[in-house]
Amino acid sequence: MPDITTAAPLLALTAILAYLLGSVPFGMVMARAFGLGDLRSVGSGNIGATNVLRTGSKPAAALTLLFDAAKGAVAVLIARAVLGEDAAQVAALSAFLGHIFPVWLKFKGGKGVATFLGTMLALAPLVGLACCATWLVMAAVTRISSMAALFSAALSTLYMFTLGYGQGFFLGIALTALIYLRHAENIRRLKAGTEPKIGAGKQKAAP
Length: 207
Description:
By secondary structure, this protein is mainly alpha-helical. The protein has helices at 8-22, 26-33, 49-53, 58-82, 85-100, 113-123, 125-142, 145-162, 169-182, 184-192. Helices cover 67% and strands 0% of the residues.
């Protein structure tokens, strides 16, 4: 992890602001903007881009992916520019927590994959690109978004060491653990062979 050079009150302020940015539910914003109804009544009921795609609107899903990734990246880049690397990692974790546990939605948020990729791209571009490439390859091979996410997260800390961002190891472990926690239901469905594939079509929310 990086040296702690920023004063504790500033790190706390960074955490709060990054959390609030991360908690903006862009999936629901896009669903409303495109007239798609309540996103929580579609597919898995999740607010992320994969579930937005289940509404049948590819533009809405693409914008959700972009904005969910951007909020993590923006939090990291601003914190790094203003305060330093320690604040950047605090912002990365806080924005991610904001996405998966947003206060506005009673702490019931998304799975965090796009925000994870956005923070990785901002923290260490080569690591982020490797994580994105892993997601794309696994998604193309398996056609299962959750499988791609789990592989990408699992390999992120390895990429950190091999691509020159070893100081992010503990952050990578924390983000990976949270992604696996948020994908617990997906893991159960993967084991049962019932996990839906990408582009499966518009669905009602699971009971």
